[in-house]
Write a structure and sequence with these properties.
The structure is a single chain. The protein is mostly helical. The protein has ten helices and no strands. α2 packs antiparallel against α7. It is elongated and about 70 Å long. It starts with a helix and ends in a 17-residue tail after the last helix.
Length: about 220
């Protein structure tokens, strides 16, 4: 069928796989903190539940600001790689500070959570890079593939991190210490580091142009 043929062609495109992996790793910390452990971690740091929940919302504000902004900047400078590299680097730094910075200062965590949202929005220009690296008849399929990679990572990786967090915690109790959270959240900087490596070395710059367009040369 035409769909099977398109999927087969897409699976043979190395750039499509690399961009999908980048998107998956750059995004996953957003649901990990926003939907799973962000509020509980901040409570373990000594903040009240109300304040912790309010700070967790900074993740989504950062994402809401970053998604259109990163796309706009990418279009303006005619580059795809630079926003991808920059977003994963921000995420690597911010997530490391969230896990290991010995503070419970409200404004510090608000800023860092906002930065995680900004970093995760790096998947926005990645969608554009994806469509530019495939043939025109595969663009819609490739966007779906990239979205599936993001959704899959958000479904699979946070439960794995949760297993590490809950390792050694007595069954039936929910008194997690900062050390318990560090047992699992240390993976966040690693996720961003993988995304950084992929964006820096493996993703090809498209200069905001389709890599499969026909260039006419006038003699």
């Amino acid at each position: 069928s035409p769909l099977i043929h398109r999927l087969k062609s897409l699976m043979q495109n190395k750039q499509a796989w690399r961009i999908a992996l980048f998107s998956a790793f750059v995004y996953v910390s957003l649901p990990l903190l926003g939907a799973y452990w962000g509020t509980s971690y901040l409570q373990a740091k000594g903040l009240s539940r109300t304040v912790a929940a309010s700070l967790s919302s900074m993740l989504w504000i950062g994402y809401a600001v970053g998604a259109p902004l990163s796309g706009k900047i990418s279009d303006s400078i005619k580059r795809r790689k630079l926003p991808l590299i920059f977003s994963s680097l921000i995420g690597m730094i911010a997530s490391s500070l969230i896990v290991y910075l010995p503070t419970n200062e409200i404004f510090t965590f608000g800023f860092l959570f906002f930065c995680i949202g900004l970093a995760s929005s790096g998947c926005s220009p990645a969608f554009a890079a994806m469509s530019e690296n495939v043939q025109e008849n595969l663009q819609a399929t490739s966007i779906g593939f990239n979205n599936s990679a993001i959704t899959f990572s958000a479904a699979i990786l946070p439960p794995i991190v949760s297993l590490f967090i809950e390792w050694g915690v007595p069954e039936g109790t929910h008194n997690y210490s900062v050390a318990n959270f560090q047992q699992g959240l240390f993976l966040m900087p690693i996720f961003y580091a993988v995304a950084f490596f992929i964006s820096l070395f493996l993703i090809r710059e498209t200069y905001c142009r389709s890599q499969h367009e026909v260039v006419k040369v006038r003699l």
